Input
Amino acid sequence: MNLAAKIAAAQAAEADCAAWRERIAQSRTHLGDELRRTATPGRIVVSGLALGFAFGLKPPSDGQPSLAGKFLGGPVFSMVLEAVLPGLIAGITAAAGLQAGEEATDEAAEEDTAEDDEAADGQAQAS
Output
């Protein structure tokens, strides 16, 4: 392998690294945006209440069950988790799907506009 081939390989590797860094930065930005969008005050309060009940059900270090553990133990807490968590997850998933659909629609509209502009430029040049 000569020097020119090594230089070309190094430049290709640098371009790949730059593309990976760009994708990582975009993913990090997207994650932050999704977190800010989905972490609404209502969801934060509901998750705080659920976690509060979860810690309240844990018996204290002296081995005696807590008051919440006596009244909301086992099956009731399980029913609460089964009712609340799927709803929260479904809401987050639906919002993400809706946003992805809107982005796809926006991108398709931009592509159509670009194609129309190119066709109009081609007709203007032909005239």
